Amino acid sequence: MSASNGAAARGDLVPSAILGLLGTRGPASRADIARTLEVSPATVTQATKSLLRRGLVAELDHVPSHGGRPARLIGLVSDAGGALGVKVTADHVAVVDVELDGTVRDSASHPFDPESPTALDRLGDILGAAMDDRGGRHLLGVGVGIPGAVDSQAVGIVSAPTLGWNEAHVGPILRSTLGVPVLVENDVNTLAVAERLYGIGQSYSSYLVVTIGRGIGCGIVVDGAVYRGAGGGAGEIGHIPITVDGPLCGCGSYGCLEAHIGEAGLVRMALERGVIGPRGTSRGLLSAAEDGNPAAREIYREAGELLGRGLAGVVHTVDPETIMILGEGIDAWEYWEPGFETAFRRHLIPSRRGLTYVVEPWAEDKWALGAAALVFASPFDATGASGDQGRLVRERLHASQGEA
């Protein structure tokens, strides 16, 4: 595939990736940006014209070149605006205040009960307080990451079994409460965007982001753009059917991958095998494994085997360049890995057995940073995914630069 075709498929993430690159690595020439992001120089030139026009980047000093005209560096204008990023979980919400260059100015965690009748009002209050704490600094919008299926970023109707939400009107309620643009997305997809803009994904065009913890999730990036599927539910690998008569999953089906190796499944197995008592938790299971308990370590080994087998099927379907594995369950990865490595390699076809994967430490702030990146990507949305909310973000960007 040619670079130009790849650039077309990358859609709205290319200009945002340029912002992330300049924010995390400092000023760079157009040629360096093109090489790093693996897009054509023409794509970078076109994207930087828009960024320059909007006042988000500026041309700096010339640098020596190897023949030809000296290259000019492009630098980020850091005061163009910021965003709030929110990661919603079953017992708390994490909120970060992020500048356009990816700098996290502030982060906080708040207790949260998603099954409360007033849960969305509580979420609005948390975000309203975070907005007030920003003072007079310009806010472009709010990005929200949810562990479930989202109809679209621009609307934000959510079905999330782990939260007890079915067609919850997250986007409409928060927009009414906050009075700013609000974009809503599956939380693993936001993490995939964060990787593309600020992390390992800068070096790859197609990759998977796999999370282990309460559930099992997957963000899919193809040709630099997050693949959402027809209804926003792509990547729900936790609901791949593994056994016919397996345990009940939170989605209502039996024998899903998540029902076996999500946090609740691991705790259930630990209880059945006498590793923990009736009130035991995943922390107790991990402690037992760290103490050398063979039954505890076998539970993790079996979980790794099931994950490796399931993920091999996803690799054959998507053909990524690499995989990133992380999440709140990653603290136990050394006990997952023996089963995972063996099963993953064994079930891959020979041409794919050399595929690399990277295990990253758990960092909840990155998930919320990914949610904020939804806001930063929306002004350059060529496919219309951000809808009317993208238009509102663009208006706020113009206002931040003193434009009409």
UniProtKB/TrEMBL annotation:
Please, which domain of life does this record's source organism belong to? Bacteria
Per the database record, which ranges form the HTH marR-type domain? 17-58
Q: What InterPro entries has UniProt attached to this entry?
A: ATPase_NBD, HTH_MarR-typ, ROK, ROK_cs, WH-like_DNA-bd_sf, WH_DNA-bd_sf
**PROSITE patterns in the record:** ROK
Pfam families noted in UniProt = MarR_2, ROK
- State the Gene Ontology terms under molecular function: DNA-binding transcription factor activity
- Which residue windows are coiled coil? none
Signal peptide feature range: none
Which PANTHER family does the record cross-reference, listed alphabetically?
Answer: BIFUNCTIONAL UDP-N-ACETYLGLUCOSAMINE 2-EPIMERASE_N-ACETYLMANNOSAMINE KINASE, ROK (REPRESSOR, ORF, KINASE) FAMILY
Record family assignment:
Belongs to the ROK (NagC/XylR) family.
Record's protein name: ROK family protein
Task: Give the source species.
Answer: Phytoactinopolyspora alkaliphila
